[in-house]
Fold this protein.
Amino acid sequence: MADEERLELCECECIHDDVVCAVNEKLQPAREYENLAALLKLFADATRVKLLHALEQHELCVCDLAVLLGVTKSAVSHQLKLLRMSNLVKSRREGQIVYYSLADDHVRQIIDMGFEHLWE
Amino acid sequence: MADEERLELCECECIHDDVVCAVNEKLQPAREYENLAALLKLFADATRVKLLHALEQHELCVCDLAVLLGVTKSAVSHQLKLLRMSNLVKSRREGQIVYYSLADDHVRQIIDMGFEHLWE
DNA sequence: TGAATAGTTGAGCAGTTGTTCAACTATTGA
DNA sequence: TCAATAGTTGAACAACTGCTCAACTATTCA
């Protein structure tokens, strides 16, 4: 690490200079934590995580999801837009109906990991 | 599933009755999604997830964390209280200094899973 | 005992989030 | 071509969140 950066970090009333600087070297750039938080934020809402868990079981259209979640189609559509833009779900249109499904397996893994923590 | 519940779910202008009801049987009770969302919400903030990632590397006191995260001790203390109450971190006091560390390995697993998704 | 320092807490504020409502587009089928 | 239905979108609003500030407690040490 550059000396200037070390100073910038540790010249305050810092208690464990050595440990702080060692840990700091192992951390990721700020941007990575923003991206990670933005990703995990998509799971941080009961409606949205239930929606994702439902899509884990079967592909579903907006109406189906609205019924399952007990909210309006509009609310579902807003959430799906978020999830689609974040590449967590994908969609295919068949006539008037748009079917949504999970884009990859990470969704399942993160939800499973969460439940595992809660249930142990 | 009880007939009444099925009706309650599907008597609306629901498009795929059968699929919706099958999926509904696989879903968890509402409370589970609230708990899961509450858990994952703790990772859904850049400061907090960086804090957890730092604790993954080494136990740290409040001052150390404040320096690493670039926020006040007060802000760190507020976040640590949240994380402590949720059993994600634990603390030990040594004189004036309180050292924080991760309470179990799920934190690491969830963060790693998130980074894996971002980096693939 | 009293000054210094680590940490905690509550109030208050700015910024964000999830929802509904109403208006819109897209597609189907008579 | 027009009505019906699936879905999308933007505005608006209430609820929530994360931060700082100021005041507090806890511990050490001279």
In short: The two ends of chain A are 40 Å apart (CA to CA). The first strand of chain A starts at residue 60 and ends at 61. Helices of chain A lie at 3-10, 17-26, 30-41, 46-57, 62-69, 73-85, 106-119.
